[in-house]
Amino acid sequence: MPNQMMQIDYSQLLEELREVARDAGREIMRIYESSIEVNFKDDGSPVTLADEAAENVILGKLKEIIPDIPIISEENSSSHQAEVTEQFFLIDPLDGTKEFLKKDGLGSFTVNIGLIENRIPTLGVVYAPALDRMFFASSATGAFEESKKGIQKITIRPVPNSGPIAVASVSHRDESTNNWLNSNHIKDTISIGSSLKFCLVACGEADVYPRFGPTMEWDTAAGDAVLRSAGGKVLLPSGELFSYGKSNYRNSAFIAHGSF
User: Fold this and answer.
1) How far apart are the first and last CA of the chain?
2) Is 225 exposed, middle or buried (0-12, 13-18, 19+ CB in 10 A)?
3) 196 within 8 A of 108, measured Cβ to Cβ
4) CA distances from 63 to 58, 131, 221, 222 (A)
5) Are 55 and 23 in contact (CB under 8 A)?
6) pTM for this one?
7) CA nearest neighbour of 38 among 104, 103, 97, 95
8) pLDDT digit string, tens, across residues 135-182
């Protein structure tokens, strides 16, 4: 049975979730700066103590802050069987685990907290602790980035005269993505991991993010919310609106657009 929609003060909730993301980020960086022990899930994807520590922080805090909204979280496999409700959180405590394990200095791994309402992402926090960049947004407040420069409102940019820039996955770029980029005459790309791809489009550092490889809803919800709140949109390749609460919370291909 769907849960009844709660009325939410988006500004207040964002304030609280930013602190939650920072707490999770501190746990991630504590482990990142020491030795990293890796295990593997049934699907072969890596999971570390950092994933688990960050998830424990987020789930514990969310249950204190807003206990009546269900939580679907990557590392809590039992939640993946949960019935879709009108309002639910999608949590990826450490998105970009492969980038985390590389220790390549790029820092492209994130904490993701997204809120879905009526199948649409309406609020999101994306925190890259190694870069000290936090993106946060809601449909009611707009989108913002907090960094060493302070807090700045962000929006998508007009496509520059020099041509659009696409952002693509580091670990999962495939032939379908390359074909799409070629067919749309896009020559310039930024390769980066995690949900930062959505955020670079949202803040005007790129113009489009095509994704044809497999993702789950907790991978995309928070970044999607940031992009939509910054004036962008996320569509199926057919042009239909990308939505949430799909079977097994599994995504199909999508294109995340700025002005492109």
Assistant:
1) 39
2) buried
3) yes
4) 9, 28, 19, 18
5) no
6) 0.94
7) 97
8) 999 999 999 999 999 999 999 999 999 999 999 876 667 889 999 999
